[in-house]
Task: inverse folding
């Protein structure tokens, strides 16, 4: 990539820490140290002390990835059909360096970091997931976003022969999502390239997905092949499908009523007890404004969040 | 040995079914309608329900309830069309469906909503998906309560009228199923079509078909 500086410092917490649930405190300390060194507020690290991080088994067997089926067990069954290499990503619109870049080319230029975020689904459940990836702001800075750009839009791969649900019209394919540029530039906004220090499993959106922890999970678009910068608010798939239920912003907000699911609380999947029977009693937690990531509130100052939901 | 010459034809099949039905006791129906619950319990205890067993249990109980209710609706047209009278089993189907609905509702109340009353009230008043399911459930309460010989005697000609509430109840259940996910799912669409067909049958004067 033309304007990219080589950054070699890779900051991944060692794998063995993740596999031992008993060592959460140690992991928490490692993350806190990381957080302090990067002067990012500690909301996401704080979560670790309240809840158990979800296991790789849980993270890879409970997914909403409608390209592979509606049931949460479908992506684990069907995502293996996806070819993720090569993976060209088209950069277009109001940007200094448009063009096609391969995922491998981008990821090796980026400063890979570790972030454990709560993922809050609009369906009223959540998980705590240790991502690795890079800050979206780092990519945007290297691409050189033009001043007129106010929004960034993303598109998932469109390949119906590998993603069989794209042969149906349950959604207006390909899946699209977007962010306001200041949201995209926020240091919490992550482009995930993996979980638990490994490359991203296909059912989680390989090879590259967005993670915006203060928004409902469907904003965190998976398997991205197009990124474009524009002046106007981009379309987003769920908003197109059902605008009354899913707004462009979709910030986690317990006070904004949703016609289908309660947003006042969330079931923490796999977070309670041990074994199959233990998981029958997944506890509900109060949902927090912006999913607890209060530092993003300044992005929405003066906005009526019940109108811009 | 002349029995060996008996050929397999529709009349023989019907005779066989009629004979089996005659042997069938009502408790056989109650017992066999517990099989879905047994399978569910086995799946739960052996870890076959995946990462979120609560949701799987909740859904499975609801689907069992609606399919047993569908079977309940099948009994009358089946009896008329075949001449094989199953009416005496209908109460068992209806009550077992209600039993699964109670389990489904209890799972929602205790394991899903965890008795968070503010959210339960909000769901029951402002979320159509929940409101439809709950309305269907409430419509079935008087039906379950009057599914006994005493009520039939007391209510007289009003009993069949009251029990017509099964039609709006099952439609509400079908809509509840349709609205469960962010998008329509095939299972729920197929279920809804079956419900509509069964209800449409009520608008036709059915007669015994000569199958021979």
Result:
């Amino acid at each position: 990539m033309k304007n990219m500086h080589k950054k070699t410092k890779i900051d991944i917490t060692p794998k063995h820490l993740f596999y031992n649930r008993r060592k959460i405190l140690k992991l928490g300390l490692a993350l806190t140290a990381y957080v302090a060194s990067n002067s990012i507020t500690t909301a996401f690290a704080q979560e670790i002390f309240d809840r158990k991080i979800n296991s790789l088994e849980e993270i890879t067997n409970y997914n909403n990835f409608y390209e592979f089926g509606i049931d949460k067990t479908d992506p684990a069954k069907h995502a293996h059909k996806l070819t993720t290499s090569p993976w060209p990503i088209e950069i277009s619109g109001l940007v200094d360096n448009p063009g096609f870049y391969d995922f491998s080319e981008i990821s090796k230029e980026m400063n890979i970091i570790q972030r454990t975020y709560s993922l809050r689904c609009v369906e009223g459940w959540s998980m705590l997931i240790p991502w690795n990836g890079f800050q979206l702001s780092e990519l945007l800075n290297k691409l050189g976003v033009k001043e007129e750009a106010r929004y960034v839009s993303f598109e998932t791969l469109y390949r119906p022969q590998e993603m069989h649900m794209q042969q149906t019209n349950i959604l207006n394919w390909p899946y699209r999502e977007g962010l306001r540029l200041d949201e995209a530039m926020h240091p919490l906004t992550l482009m995930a390239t993996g979980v638990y220090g490994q490359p991203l499993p296909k059912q989680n959106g390989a090879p590259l997905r967005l993670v915006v922890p203060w928004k409902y999970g469907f904003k965190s678009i998976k398997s991205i092949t197009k990124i474009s910068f524009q002046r106007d608010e981009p379309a987003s798939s769920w908003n197109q499908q059902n605008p009354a239920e899913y707004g462009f912003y979709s910030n986690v907000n317990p006070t904004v009523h949703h016609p289908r699911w309660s947003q006042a609380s969330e079931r923490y999947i796999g977070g309670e007890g041990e074994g199959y029977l233990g998981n029958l009693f997944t506890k509900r937690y109060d949902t927090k404004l912006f999913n607890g990531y209060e530092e993003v509130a300044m992005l929405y100052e003066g906005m009526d969040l019940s109108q811009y939901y | 040995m002349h029995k060996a010459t008996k050929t397999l034809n529709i009349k023989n099949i019907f005779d066989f079914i009629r004979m089996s039905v005659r042997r069938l006791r009502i408790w056989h129906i109650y017992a066999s309608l517990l099989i879905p619950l047994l399978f569910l319990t086995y799946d739960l205890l052996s870890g076959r329900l995946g990462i979120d067993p609560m949701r799987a249990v909740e859904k499975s109980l609801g689907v069992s309830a609606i399919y047993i209710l569908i079977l309940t609706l099948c009994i009358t047209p089946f009896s008329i069309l075949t001449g094989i009278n199953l009416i005496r089993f209908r109460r068992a189907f209806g009550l077992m469906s209600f039993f699964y609905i109670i389990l489904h509702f209890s799972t929602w109340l205790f394991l899903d909503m965890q008795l968070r009353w503010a959210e339960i009230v909000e769901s029951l008043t402002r979320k159509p998906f929940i409101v439809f399911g709950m309305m269907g459930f409430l419509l079935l309460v008087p039906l379950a309560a009057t599914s006994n010989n005493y009520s039939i005697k007391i209510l007289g000609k009003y009993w069949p009228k009251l029990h017509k509430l099964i039609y709006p109840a099952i439609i509400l259940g079908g809509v509840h199923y349709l609205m469960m996910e962010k998008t329509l799912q095939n299972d729920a669409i197929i279920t809804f079509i079956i419900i509509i067909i069964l209800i449409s049958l009520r608008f036709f004067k059915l007669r015994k078909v000569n199958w021979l």
